[in-house]
Amino acid sequence: MMEVISPELVNDFMSEAFELVQNMENSLLSLEKNPNDASAVAEIFRAAHTIKGGAGTIGFVEIKEFTHRVEDLLDRVRKGEMQIDPSLVSLLLEAKDVIEEMLHLRQQGTQANSELYEALLARIQGYLSGGGSSSSSSVMVKKENVSPRKEEVSLGYLTSYERSVILEFLKQNYPVYELYYVFNENYEMKDVSAFQIYALVGDFAQIIRLEPSLEVLEKEFRPDFRIVAMTQKDEKFIYEKTFMKDLVTDLRIRRIQQADIENIETVMMQGGISSGESQNRSLSQEKEVSPSPSLSSVSSPKEKTEEMKAAPTIRVESNRIDELLNLVGELVINKSLLAETSMAMMQDYNGIRMILKQFIAGLQSLQLDETPSRNQELNGKLRGHLLALEKSLEQYQDILQRFNQISSSLQENVTGLRMVPIQQVFARFPRLVRDQAQRLGKQVELVIEGVETEIDKGMVDDLFDPLIHILRNSIDHGIESPEVRRSKGKPEQGRILIKAFHEGENVFIEVSDDGQGIDIERVKQKALEKKLITPAMAESLSAKELLALIFLPGFSTAKEITELSGRGVGMDVVKKKIEQMGGSVSVFTAKDKGTKIQVRLPLTLAIIQGLHVTVADFSYILPIVAIDETLIIDQKDIIEIEGDPHLNVRGEFVPILFLREFFYNEKKTSADHMYCIIARQGEKHYGLVVDEIVGEQDVVIKPFNNRLMKSPGIAAGTIIGNGNIGYIVDLAGLVQATRRRTETGEGLHGNS
Amino acid sequence: MEIRNKRFETGEETPVVTTIVMQCISFYLGDQLYALGMDHVESILFARRIFLLPNTHDKLLGVYNLRGEIIPVYSLRRILSLPDVYQGKRIIDDDDRYVIVVKYQRNILGLMVDSIYKHLEVAESEYQGGDHIAKWSQHALISGVILKEENEILFIDMDKVVSYLSSLNEKG
Question: What pTM did the predictor assign?
Answer without folding.
Answer: 0.50
